[in-house]
Design a protein that fits this description.
3-stranded antiparallel beta sheet; 6% strand; mainly alpha; 2 domains; Double Stranded RNA Binding Domain; disordered N terminus; flat
């Protein structure tokens, strides 16, 4: 045990880092303060004003007790940092539809996908709030159709964009339905020529 103690860092080095803690209202009154990184390190307080002082006191006592007992003292964890970049593999048809949507909007593919994600996430949040309100009011909440269960907000947004995309002529040069209707309209409006 003395070897363990001699290899340890000084207690002050364990006490120096800042650990995040949670303060949760107790249904029976008061608040519970706990440190997620320090197992079992928690206390109760009557008011929020007491919370910070009690949190520091219980953290110090927990670390001192673990140090004296030769136990491992975990380092604090911090919320994950995000780089703002990630790779996505998707079908070529979806890639094409997204690229065409970006071109129609006059923006980069990256900017277009970011706007779809933001719009889809916002829509999903609104839909969730509406469902919760309906449930609170006792209104029926319709189930998603079978084909849409588990569909992501991005998929819904992209599906909406793909459905809005204009139809193109097929490979053989035959006009699409919209183009045929345009040709038919032009034909109706063209002056009629009678037999010579």
């Amino acid at each position: 045990m003395s070897e363990m103690m001699s290899n340890k860092k000084p207690l002050e080095e364990y006490l120096a880092p800042q650990y995040s803690f949670n303060v949760v209202a107790d249904p029976e009154g008061g608040y519970v303060v706990d440190y997620p990184d320090l197992p079992g390190c928690m206390t109760q307080v009557e008011s929020l004003e007491e919370g910070a002082e009690a949190a520091e006191e219980i953290r110090t006592l927990w670390i001192e007790t673990a140090y004296d007992g030769g136990q491992e003292i975990p380092l604090p964890t911090y919320p994950e940092e995000y780089s703002g970049k990630f790779n996505v593999r998707l079908p070529k048809s979806l890639h094409r539809a997204l690229a065409e949507g970006a071109r129609r909007e006059g923006v980069s593919l990256n900017q277009y996908v970011v706007s779809l994600l933001a719009r889809g996430d916002g829509q999903a949040r609104v839909e969730t709030m509406v469902k919760e309100l309906k449930a609170q009011l006792g209104l029926a909440v319709p189930q998603e159709p079978q084909g849409n269960q588990g569909e992501t907000a991005l998929a819904k947004a992209v599906r909406g964009q793909v459905q809005e995309a204009p139809r193109r002529a097929d490979v053989g040069g035959n006009p699409s339905g919209a183009e045929r209707r345009g040709i038919e309209r032009e034909g109706r409006n063209a002056p009629r020529r009678g037999p010579g």
